[in-house]
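note to self: dont lose this again. the chain is below, predicted strucutre after it. 293 aa total, dont forget to put it in the shared folder this time
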Amino acid sequence: MTRSGFVALAGRPNVGKSTLVNAIVEEKVAIVSDRPQTTRRAIRGIRSRGDCQLVLVDLPGVQRPRDTLTARMAGRVQQELAGSDVALLVLNGEQGVGPGDRFIAATLADAKLPVTIAVNKIDRLSRAATAAALAQAAELPIGEDVFPISARTGSGVAALVEHLSARMPEGPFMFSERAISDQPMAVVLAELVREAVIRRTFQEVPHAVEVMVEEIEHPRAGFARVRALIWVESASQKGILVGAQGRMVKAIGTAARREIERELDCHVHLDLSVRVRGDWRGDEGLLDRLGIT
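---
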């Protein structure tokens, strides 16, 4: 009998949820950054091994809504929790349990899902610090099991996967055994561009940036063309992204193109344009077009 089900990953921004999804799937399906609000959509990574399929839902950072964008992100969190079989609360072992973690724990308690806790980044902790982080996690009023892991090195991930697999309900696989994600290709490529932007602009513009792939000319003779728009909220942000004599946008394009070529397995011509759209985070129509629902 096969097992399959949904695992909702929740946690404060930057605790390593996206890295953990990639480690479990053993492929890159979610972009990774140490900047808040990197994950804006519920990203599904799919791991099929033996008689079990785990569908991992990397939730947008659970937070109190501040604008239309974060309100939509919060709504998506609630929808995904309602459709999941198990919740996985990911904590940053370096930082310990804080108010944000307790807020998320309360959200998961309201969802009435079985909860497992993963204490991440133990590769950066001493044995004593790891023990202290695990003890703090165990004091939370949710979660029957606590696992020490390092999503970056893979330490403890196999034991966590085995535990989650055992908690999946019996039933047929929901996706092909070869599938690793259910994201549309346009979203996958847009996220790779956004990752390149975030990594090169640091604190300056990440929250104000979104990317839309407008056209994918599919590979012919080992070559593809991708056209994408980078949205920012002000002319000054556009200036930062374009850079002196276009150096910054060129560097972003070079880095993104390499990742897109790995994804499409062919040579790629990437055409990037930077556009200004004031307060796009409050623009319902644009958020619909971007697939942030």
